[in-house]
Write a sequence for this structure.
């Protein structure tokens, strides 16, 4: 891993955050009223090629940017992303087992990040569980992310993979 | 910290929004195609209903005029407003906020009501120099004191993380009927702003309150330009709790009048005599 890889990853995450808030946020491109979660896809894709520490820092940065540019309590996304990336790092050697495993991983970690956000947010007084709508908001982005991953993962592999091809293993 | 991030990212967001606006619109239209057939059927049905209702429109208009007079509702046309454009949205489906391109430099303050031509959008909850954040009424953390225009009953409207809202009418003596218009009651928002329409008739008084759902007047997915009402100070207005306490006090006053039976509730805003429905 080089400093350049980290810089490229941060650039990609910043672009993803801008795209998320300007294009995919609530009220923009959100089929059936649900937005995809582009940032977690980019973070997971980059985490395949970075060392564990920069990967976790990248997750924290992505989450914190979402917190700063969104309306949620500060640190909620940052915490959720950090934990989700930590969990992803524990399983990343399995990413090379095939596309199916990768797809399951993307769905699982998107679900995890959304679930953490909802649970921790509720502990901090947010009213996320007022209706059954939260299930849709939590689950559907995971499947949108599969479509987005088809574009993002090859792109990230092209940008970072040539420097170091490790799958999700360190 | 939020201000710094906003300042840093807002040019990028603005540029992305400007470039992708047509694409976003196109994709939005595509995603709507699936629901067009269903919507067509619904519109056909609605058309039939409207034809029936047209016969009653004169009496409804008269009733509405009367209710407006009774409740002293004023549509806040005379309040100064600032027109702003939506620049970015919340970062997820859980985030019911929009950022606008006007801020404290244009006189926007925290708590200011935001409307569009259809009705109430939300209120400002974060203000920077040239930018502000609007929390939509869809957010469960936003509560709006409202009046049911057809019965003058007061209630509280709250977001539900869905595309519609939950209305609670306290100590109702009449049902909340489907189709009734809901307007702001004048607590933290200027009175008389259209908020939505009741979608389900509620007759059962559960826990001393009627609970029903309201479809917002505003189509939030198509928000582009909004108006921020800057001539109304919500910070001076009583809170919802104070407003309800005042309502209860008025009620008690009515109940203790020498010849009062105490059965009829006062008008919804507590400012008028009890209305005989």
């Amino acid at each position: 891993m080089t400093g350049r890889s980290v810089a490229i990853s941060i650039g990609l995450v910043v672009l993803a955050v801008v795209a998320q808030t300007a294009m995919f946020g609530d009220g923009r491109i959100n089929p059936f009223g649900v937005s995809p979660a582009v940032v977690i896809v980019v973070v997971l894709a980059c985490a395949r090629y970075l060392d564990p520490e920069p990967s976790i820092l990248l997750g924290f940065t992505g989450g914190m940017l979402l917190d700063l540019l969104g309306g949620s309590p500060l640190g909620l996304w940052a915490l959720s992303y950090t934990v989700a990336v930590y969990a992803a790092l524990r399983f990343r050697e399995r990413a090379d087992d095939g596309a199916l495993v990768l797809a399951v991983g993307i769905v699982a970690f998107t679900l995890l990040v959304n679930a953490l956000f909802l649970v921790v947010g509720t502990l901090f007084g947010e009213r996320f569980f007022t209706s059954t709508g939260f299930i849709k908001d939590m689950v559907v982005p995971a499947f949108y992310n599969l479509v987005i991953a088809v574009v993002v993962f090859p792109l990230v592999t092209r940008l970072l993979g040539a420097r170091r091809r490790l799958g999700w293993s360190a | 910290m939020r201000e710094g991030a906003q300042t840093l990212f807002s040019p990028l967001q603005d540029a992305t929004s400007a470039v992708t606006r047509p694409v976003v619109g196109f994709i939005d239209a595509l995603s709507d195609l699936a629901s067009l057939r269903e919507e067509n059927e619904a519109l056909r049905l609605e058309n039939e209903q409207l034809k029936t209702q047209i016969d009653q429109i004169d009496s409804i208009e008269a009733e509405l005029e009367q209710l407006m007079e009774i409740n002293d509702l004023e549509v806040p046309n005379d309040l100064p407003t600032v027109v702003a454009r939506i620049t970015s949205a919340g970062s997820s489906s859980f985030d019911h906020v929009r950022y606008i391109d006007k801020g404290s430099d244009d006189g926007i303050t925290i708590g200011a009501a935001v409307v569009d031509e259809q009705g109430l959008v939300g209120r400002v909850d974060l203000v920077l120099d040239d930018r502000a954040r609007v929390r939509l009424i869809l957010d469960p953390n936003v509560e709006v004191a409202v009046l049911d225009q057809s019965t003058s009953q007061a209630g509280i409207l709250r977001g539900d993380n869905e595309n519609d809202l939950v209305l609670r009418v306290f100590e109702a003596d009449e049902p909340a009927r489907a189709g009734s218009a809901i307007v702001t009651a004048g607590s933290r928002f200027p009175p008389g702003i259209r908020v939505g329409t009741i979608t389900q008739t509620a007759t059962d008084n559960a826990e001393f309150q009627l609970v029903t759902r309201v479809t917002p007047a505003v189509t939030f997915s198509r928000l582009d330009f909004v108006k921020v009402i800057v001539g109304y100070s919500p910070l001076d207005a009583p809170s919802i709790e104070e407003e309800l306490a005042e309502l209860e006090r008025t009620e008690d006053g009515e109940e203790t009048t020498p010849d009062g039976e105490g059965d009829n509730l006062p008008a919804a805003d507590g400012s008028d005599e009890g209305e005989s429905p």
